[in-house]
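Example record

The entry below shows one chain as it appears in the dataset: sequence first, then structure tokens.
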Amino acid sequence: MDFGNKLKSGDILFREMEKMFSNLQDTAAEMKKFGLSEKMVTERNKQISQYRLLNTSVKGALVILEFREKFRLNGDFGPLEMIKQVWSLLTRVLLLAPLH
């Protein structure tokens, strides 16, 4: 299945989307070139935005954990440790799973 059809059906990997659209200012215009309807473009952009927000949030949690280790901070970092563990597992799934 070619990129455009995978994009339309949602059977595309996040890493493929990131590779194709990571540096583009207007992903909507680019997706439309592949024949996606306005509704599909909106849905794919929403999915990409959610993935990127999740990724950014996890990176923030990881930075805080590194900061904790570097400065030997005490406290309840359990939720951040859980995020780190879950992200480690989900990364494999998110990068391999289709968008839908």
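Notes for this example: Residues 3-96 form one domain. The mean pLDDT is 86.
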